[in-house]
Amino acid sequence: MGDKFLGFRRENGTVGVRNLIAIIPSVFCSAKVAQRISESVPGTVHFSHPVGCSQVGEDLEITAKTLIGIGRNPNFAGVVVVGLGCERFTPRELFDGIAPTGKMLEMVVIQDEGDSIKAIDAGTRFARKMQQAASQQQRAEADVSELMIGLNCGGSDTTSGLVANPALGIASDNLVAQGGSSILTELTELLGTEHILARRAVNEQVAADILRVIGNMEERLKQQTRHSSNAKRKNLISTGNYDGGLSSVVEKSLGGMKKSGNAQFVEVFAYGDAPTKKGLLLLDGPGHDGEVTTGQAAAGAQIVCFPTGRGTPSGFPGLPVIKITGNPRTYQRMKENIDINAGTVITGEKSLQEVGEEIYQEILAVANGKLSKAEVLGHDEQFCITRMP
Amino acid sequence: MKELSDLTAGKTALVLDPKDNVAIALTDLAAGDVCTVAEDGGNKYEATVVEKIPFGHKFALVDLAADAPVYKYGEEIGKMKVAIKKGTWIHVHNMYCERGM
Known about the structure:
Oligomer: heterodimer
Number of strands of chain A: 14
Helix content of chain B: under 10%
Shape of chain B: globular
Strand content of chain A: 15-25%
Number of helices of chain A: 14
Order of helices and strands of chain B: EEEEEEEEE
CATH architecture of chain B: Roll
Largest sheet of chain A: 7 strands, parallel
Number of strands of chain B: 9
Structural class of chain A: alpha/beta
CATH topology of chain B: Archaeosine Trna-guanine Transglycosylase, Chain: A, domain 4
Largest sheet of chain B: 6 strands, mixed
Strand order of the largest sheet of chain B: 4-3-1-2-5-8
Distance between the termini of chain A: 46 Å
Helix content of chain A: 25-40%
Order of helices and strands of chain A: EEEHEHEHEHHEEHEHHHHEEHEEHEHH
CATH class of chain B: Mainly Beta
C-alpha cells in the first residue's frame, strides 16, 4: 500500500490537489475578459495567452491541445471558456475537448454576448455559480499513485546538479516506486545526457524515442543559431548559469537530468498530450520554465517541483510550484520564495537522502492542501504555451 | 554525500566521480589557497588553487593540454581551449563544448 493524500476526486476518476475554477480564453482577443471574470470571483484563475488565431499546422494544434489539457487538469473543478467568436481555435472546440471530464463547464463568446462588458458579466455569473458548487466538495483519501508531478529547474547553478536535483530525484523515485508519475522535460537542457537516459528506458522503443526527441531538439537549436546574424544569440544556457559555475550545456544537462532520479523511463510523449502510462515520463518540449510547466499541467500534473540555484519566484496558475534550492546563500536571500532549503546538504546539516525525504513529505503536504510560497504570494507567470517555428 | 558534513568548516572542494579531472569549490577560494578536496568515496587530499575560484566553480586537478576533455559527473562536459596547470579555474574563457555553451 502506498502513501495517501487528501484530494478532490473528479467525475472521470482523476484527483485534484486544488479545487479552483479556471477561466480559459480560446484566443488572445478574449484574454482581458477572462482576466476580469477571474478578478471578480476569488477562487478562480485565468490563463491569458498571446495565441489562438493566425496560426497554422503543428503550431496551432499544440495551442489547441495544450489549452484543452489545461481545462482537463484535475486541479480545476470547473472551467469557463471565453471566446471572441471568429478565432481559428474555436471556443466550441475548447469546450468540447474539456467536456469528457464531466467537470462543470460553461462558455461565453464575446461576439455573441454583444460586447466585452456583457461577456464579463455573463462569465462572472457562471464562475460565481461554479465556485459556490466547488466550495461544497470535501477532500477525500486518494493514493499517491494518483499524483503526477512536473520536474523543472530554473536559474540553475552548480548546486542544482550537486544537491537540489539529486534530492528531487530521490523524491521522484519514491513517488514512482509507489505507482505515481513524474515528468522530465527541458530537452534543450538534456543535450549530452541522451546516452544515459536511453540506458534507463524500459524498452528499446522508449530508448529510441529518447534519442529521437533530444536529437530533433538539438537540430532545431542548430537551425536557430546557425545564421551569423544571430551570433550574439547562440548561447544555450543563461548568464546566471555561467555566473553560478556552469560552463557548457552538457555540464548543465548532466546536473539537470538528476531531477529524474534513477527510475526507468516508461514513455516519451508529445507537447499538449497526456501520457498513456504511469511512472517516469519524458515530455518532448524545450527548456523555457513556463513552456515546461505549461506542458506538464496540460499533461495532468497536479504539482510542479522546481529546483532553482540562483532563485526565482515564478509560479503557475492553479498548480502549486514547490521551490527547492541547493544554494544555502540563495535560501538565506530568498526564503520568502523558496520552500525547501537543500543547501543544508552543502552546509552539512543534512544528508542528500534526508533532503530527498523532506521534499517527498512536502509534496504530500502540498497535495493535502498546504500552499506553496509561490501560491501564497500569487505568482502565476509560468503559463506559456510552446510555439513551433 | 554524507561526507560533506565535516567539510564546511574550512576551504573545501568536491570531486563527483573517480573519472573527473576537476573539483568544485564549495567555498570561495583565493589565489594560493590550499583546500581539502573530497572524493565521492570519502577519500580526501589537499590541493592548491592558482587563482580565485568562486563558490560553485571548478578547477583542474591535473595539468591539462589544449583539446583535453574536461570530466565532471564522470562525463565529458567540454574540452580545453588552451593548456592549463592544475589549480587553474576552468570556465567559458578556457573551455569549449561542441554541443553548445
